[in-house]
Design a protein that fits this description.
Helices cover 24% and strands 42% of the residues. The chain is α+β, with helices and mostly antiparallel strands and 146 residues long. It has a single domain, classed as Beta Barrel (Lipocalin), CATH 2.40.128. The longest helix is centred in the last third of the chain and has 17 residues. The radius of gyration is 16 Å and the shape is globular.
Length: 146
């Protein structure tokens, strides 16, 4: 019973965090036949250094399935921690949704470390979603500062 209460409290804290502000402003990153990708640009203009935190939203036309997630996945929100100088990123949170926007599963990958290898697990490779997300972030940050 304690595990369920702890999980519920963590879920509430996650959804009430600044990262998921009610003032979301989703901007298209790419739109294809199989999926659409967006980022939430709210607060992006505040990032001045090498680190960027950004939520992405992926909407798929054909539902995804995962062994760990019960139900068909139609939307995926991912919270990225990107380092421009290193050209690497880490994933801090992922939320899977069904077709009615109900949360199917939520994962939190926040790490309490300063080790860059653990903070930024993945390289940013051209033509990937992470590359497109970073490019759109930089485009938005640059245009906002003009």
């Amino acid at each position: 019973m304690k595990k369920y209460i702890l999980f519920f409290l963590l879920l509430i804290c996650t959804f009430s965090s600044k990262a998921q502000n009610a003032n979301e402003n989703w901007v298209s990153v790419s739109d294809g036949n199989d999926k659409s990708l967006y980022i939430n640009v709210t607060g992006l203009s505040e990032f001045q250094g090498d680190e960027i935190y950004v939520w992405s939203l992926e909407e798929v036309n054909s539902p995804l399935t995962m062994e760990e997630v019960s139900g068909d996945i139609y939307k995926v929100k991912t919270y990225y921690h990107i380092n421009k100088e290193l050209s690497k990123y880490g994933i801090m949170q992922i939320i899977y949704y069904d077709k009615n926007n109900n949360v199917l599963k939520h994962y939190n990958y926040k790490r309490n470390t300063k080790n860059l290898d653990f903070l930024y697990n993945f390289p940013i490779i051209e033509r990937t979603d992470a590359y497109k997300i970073l490019a759109k972030c930089l485009e938005y940050i640059t245009s906002y500062k003009k």
